[in-house]
Design brief:
Layout: E1 8-12, H1 17-28, E2 32-37, E3 56-59, H2 65-75, E4 79-82, H3 89-94, H4 96-117, E5 122-128, H5 151-170, E6 173-179, E7 182-183, H6 192-204, E8 211-213, E9 219-220, E10 223-224, H7 225-235, E11 244-246, E12 252-253, H8 254-264, E13 273-275, H9 293-299, H10 307-323
Parallel strand pairs: 1-2, 1-4, 2-3, 4-5, 5-6, 6-11, 7-10, 8-13
Antiparallel strand pairs: 9-12
Helix pairs in contact: 1-7, 2-4, 4-5, 6-8, 6-10, 8-10
The structure holds NADP nicotinamide-adenine-dinucleotide phosphate and guanosine-5'-diphosphate-alpha-D-mannose.
């Protein structure tokens, strides 16, 4: 990309898993990247430490619309990726109002700031397969009705529809990716995949003995975050804004993930895993399975990392993090 054609992208949630991978991708594509970070007493930039000096950081909070009005007026972005959210489902049961403010109304604040300052920009909203909740059809596609099962999913449904509403009301290029679960070595430690791979590494290295989990029978369509940020970018390069389901088209249980992760380092999971009802949820999402054919046909998007390689890659990365070296051949 030439200097004259260089695009500017604003990423909310740049300190999160997806924000950090998206920043990597956009920098590779030659974008100027502005990342929105909230003010914390201790900076939380571990996931983007490798991008120091390459991305510009601006302070903003989804609870505060004026921060976005100012950031957009200053940087005049071509693309805005709204990835920031209170994204952990159990926390949303404990903090439903905060989750509604941040994950739901926060989307309207960003859209409204965009409408007032840069209505010609392109907007991506991080919608979620969690909105399908108690699924009414399988696999889930763009037309599948939502039945959210957590305050998080209810807030995401608001974010999804307010994005559609701004597209229809103001002719703005605003779209949502309905992304199924995606993981990586940068995944937050409380999400089940990373909780498992971190524990497997610790148990293998003699640093822990057991792993307490909740519902082992829940099924998810798990992909790799690096693949999914590519889909986000593709969604903003189309002639018209449209919503897309993004997933692998495969579903696996938490139990299968556990078996593979422990098996990868030669451990028998049954000797270490304890089912603890403390990790059950008030309402569970039992099964998620995507039909990603629209993304494949229209965007040419297909995931590159499969389930088995994802699990092994995450276990290897946690072993490497704890030892400073990987004793196991990297699988992906
Ligand atoms: P994540 O790791 O939890 O990152 C969330 C980001 O949001 C962090 O940068 C966090 O900042 C920021 N944030 C939280 N509250 C904020 C506030 N009030 N103002 C400004 N920023 C705030 O999430 P992720 O896995 O990268 O997911 C990215 C987005 O996709 C989220 O919206 C999530 O709900 C959605 N999504 C994720 C998946 C998935 O499987 N990963 C699937 C579907 C949809 P701090 O670092 O300061 O906490
Ligand atoms: N976190 C966690 N911890 N989950 C557990 C545990 C445990 O100890 N034991 C079993 N699970 C089950 C949960 O009950 C759930 O059915 C499944 O593992 C996945 O849980 P999470 O990894 O916390 O992810 P999630 O599916 O609730 O939500 C993630 O995916 C959504 C997309 O569908 C998050 O990234 C959301 O932000 C995202 O929208």
């Amino acid at each position: 990309m030439t200097q004259a054609a260089r695009k500017t992208a604003v990423i909310t949630g740049i300190t999160g898993q997806d924000g950090s991978y998206l920043a990597d991708l956009l920098l590779e594509q030659g974008y100027k990247v502005v990342g929105v970070v909230r003010r914390l007493s201790t900076p939380n930039t571990e996931r983007i430490a490798h991008l120091e000096g390459k991305v510009e950081l601006a302070q903003g909070d989804l609870l505060d619309q004026s921060s976005f009005t100012e950031i957009f007026a200053k940087h005049k972005p071509d693309e805005i990726y709204n990835l920031a959210a209170q994204s952990f489902v159990p926390t949303s049961f404990g903090q439903p109002l905060l989750t509604g403010e941040v994950t739901g109304l926060g989307v309207a604040r960003v859209l409204e700031a965009m409408r007032l300052t840069c209505p010609k920009a392109r907007f991506y909203q991080a919608s979620s397969s969690e909105m399908y909740g108690k699924v009414v059809e399988t696999p889930q596609r763009e037309t599948t009705r939502f039945h959210p099962r957590s305050p998080y999913a209810v807030a995401k449904a608001y974010g999804h529809y307010i994005t559609l509403n701004y597209r229809e009301s103001y002719d703005m290029y605003a779209c949502s990716g309905i992304l199924f679960n995606h993981e990586s070595p940068r995944r937050g430690i409380e999400f089940v995949t990373r909780k498992i791979t971190d524990a497997v590494a610790k148990i293998k290295l003699g640093l822990a003995k057991e792993l307490r989990l909740g519902n082992l029978e829940a099924r998810r369509d798990w992909g790799c975050a690096g693949d999914y940020v590519r889909a986000m970018w593709l969604m903003l390069q189309q002639d018209e804004a449209e919503d897309f389901v993004v997933g692998t088209g495969e579903t696996h249980s938490v139990r299968e993930f556990v078996e593979l992760a422990f098996g990868h380092v030669g451990l028998d999971w049954k000797r270490h895993v304890i089912v603890d009802p403390a990790f059950y949820r008030p309402a569970e999402v039992d099964l998620l399975l995507s039909d990603p054919s629209h993304a494949k046909n229209k965007l040419g998007w297909v995931p590159e990392v499969g389930f088995e390689n994802l699990v092994k890659m995450m276990v290897d990365a946690d072993v490497e993090r704890l030892t400073g070296k990987s004793p196991i051949r990297r699988a992906a």
